[in-house]
């Protein structure tokens, strides 16, 4: 790969192992990686210096990781200083992969670094420049990096999709502050604020730099005022019009605070990334417009869930994104027959009769994220991915805070599901997460649909089968939800792949069969 239009005679390539930027090179010794890993994550003296290639978005993402306790140097997974070979771990196409690069870095002829770098105690470090070179190799050229944003960089460095907050949904400043406050209380969330009204790099009268990201650490009440605390990772760009001290008991020179009123005036974008614990379970499936997939998810206990759909067809594209990526999440409650329906026929022709739409998002971005605050064990959850480009494909990942059952719908089930989507009812996701437990009464005095327990009944032997699906025979007093589970294949915890290429996909034929509880012993005709 090349430097694009910047690969003229004004740049030379020098090896990092020979001190291209500094004698304190990460490639100088194999012990440098171990020394960097043992260094404190939140070094207040380290500043991020952009390079010639408009790489402030990469540094903004790395600064956000460092501010929230994520060491970005962990992306450097190995080096051979003598050979000048380095491995960088990036998240591409829904999986972790290695980018193998050499240690040649672009330097201007006057000796000034052309790539981004960090400075600590007047010592220049090149670990950020090596990560930037791996991104340039992934996208083709350094010039291609100028067409990327902080949203793309966060997704390259984190295994959970980044989400851009739609400020139009919060016309009142207090509502935006409460939204950010709720995210903090729900779990660890990494947020980055950016202003994009002026040219990139232009310094404003208040001291902020347009187009540069500022990590948003936390929110709090100070003197009955909604206050946001941010970090300035840049060598310049400190907020001048400060009316209050930082929220920390021992403030640093890099952190500053401002009211939510000032925050909404100064920043135009807010990016958020959920930081998931390592014990969360994840399952992945690939889909395309020609071959859609309909995954079926359930949990044995109440849990949180996050669904991330990533468009994997535009890697290295220079043009701005014009296609739309959509993600819809459905919920299906299991409904018991009436108490007087002994011997009644089970409606196996419409297993998704009580289909509900929990969330629907369409974005012009690389990934779309939907967070489900509460997954109920008595419900089945399904998801669909919508792609505008018929030649593109996407990776759908399902994260849950507890063990999950995951498989893809079979052909007959998919036909029922597609037909039921047109009649699915829309529910409020926030209200659904606060709904009462099974069997409790709502405010109107009526029970929720599907709250009644399964009544013991026996289907008539003369019931007709539908598309090869036989009616189940449920013994009296037997609860279909409590049938013995087949051997469960647990989803592997989140981890980084040990090499580039497609990851190991799940064997759907061995997944626990969720519809066995609905259709009894008819497992052969329904198995994927």
From TrEMBL:
Keywords: Hydrolase, Protease, Thiol protease. Pfam families: Peptidase_C2. The active site is at residue 232. InterPro entries: Calpain_cysteine_protease (IPR022684), Papain-like_cys_pep_sf (IPR038765), Peptidase_C2_calpain_cat (IPR001300). GO terms for molecular function: calcium-dependent cysteine-type endopeptidase activity. Residues 474-507 are annotated as: Disordered. One of its GO terms (biological process) is proteolysis. SUPFAM superfamilies: Cysteine proteinases (SSF54001). Residues 1-276 form the Calpain catalytic domain. Belongs to the peptidase C2 family. This is Calpain catalytic domain-containing protein. The lineage of its organism: Eukaryota, Sar, Alveolata, Dinophyceae, Noctilucales.
């Amino acid at each position: 790969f090349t430097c694009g239009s910047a690969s003229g005679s004004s740049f030379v390539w020098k090896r990092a192992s020979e001190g291209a930027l500094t004698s304190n090179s990460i490639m100088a010794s194999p012990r440098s990686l171990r020394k960097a890993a043992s260094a404190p994550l939140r070094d207040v003296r380290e500043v991020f210096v952009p390079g010639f290639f408009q790489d402030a978005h990469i540094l903004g993402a790395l600064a956000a990781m460092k501010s929230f306790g994520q060491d970005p140097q962990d992306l450097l997974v190995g080096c051979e200083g003598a050979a000048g070979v380095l491995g960088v771990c990036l998240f591409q196409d829904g999986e972790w992969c290695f980018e193998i690069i050499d240690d040649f870095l672009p330097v201007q002829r006057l000796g000034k670094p052309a790539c981004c770098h960090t400075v600590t105690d007047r010592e220049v470090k090149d670990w950020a420049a090596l990560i930037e070179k791996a991104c340039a190799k992934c996208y083709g050229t350094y010039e291609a990096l100028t067409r990327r944003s902080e949203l793309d960089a966060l997704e390259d460095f984190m295994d959970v999709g980044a989400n851009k907050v739609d400020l139009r949904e919060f016309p009142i400043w207090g509502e935006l502050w409460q939204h950010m406050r709720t995210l903090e209380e729900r779990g660890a969330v990494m947020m980055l604020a950016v202003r994009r009204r002026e040219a990139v790099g232009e310094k404003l009268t208040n001291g902020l730099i347009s187009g540069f990201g500022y990590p948003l650490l936390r929110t709090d009440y100070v003197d009955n005022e909604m206050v946001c605390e941010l970090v300035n990772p840049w060598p310049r760009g400190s907020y001048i019009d400060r009316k209050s001290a930082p929220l920390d008991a021992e403030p640093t020179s890099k952190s500053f605070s401002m009211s939510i009123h000032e925050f909404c005036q100064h920043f135009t974008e807010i990016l958020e990334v959920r930081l998931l614990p390592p014990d969360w379970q994840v399952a992945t499936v690939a889909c395309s417009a020609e071959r859609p997939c309909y995954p079926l998810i359930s949990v044995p206990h109440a849990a949180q869930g996050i669904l991330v759909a990533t468009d994997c067809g535009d890697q290295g594209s220079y043009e701005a994104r014009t296609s739309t990526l959509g993600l819809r999440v459905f919920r299906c409650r299991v409904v018991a027959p009436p108490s007087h329906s002994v011997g009644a026929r089970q409606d196996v022709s419409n297993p998704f009769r009580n289909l509900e739409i929990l969330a629907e998002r369409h974005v012009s971005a690389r990934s779309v994220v939907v967070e489900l605050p509460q997954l109920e064990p008595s419900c089945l959850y399904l998801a669909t991915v919508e792609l505008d480009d018929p030649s593109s494909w996407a990776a759908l990942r399902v994260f849950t805070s507890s063990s999950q059952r995951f498989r893809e719908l079979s052909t007959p089930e998919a036909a029922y599901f597609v037909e039921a989507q047109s009649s699915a009812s829309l529910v409020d996701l926030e209200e659904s997460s606060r709904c009462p437990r099974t069997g409790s009464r709502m405010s109107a005095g009526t029970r929720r649909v599907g709250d009644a327990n399964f009544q013991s009944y026996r289907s008539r032997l003369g019931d007709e089968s539908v598309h090869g699906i036989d009616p189940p025979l449920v013994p009296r007093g037997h609860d279909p939800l409590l049938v013995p589970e087949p051997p469960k294949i647990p989803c592997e915890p989140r981890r980084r792949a040990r090499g580039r290429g497609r990851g190991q996909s799940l064997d759907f034929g061995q997944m626990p069969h969720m519809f066995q509880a609905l259709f009894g012993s008819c497992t052969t005709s329904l198995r994927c």
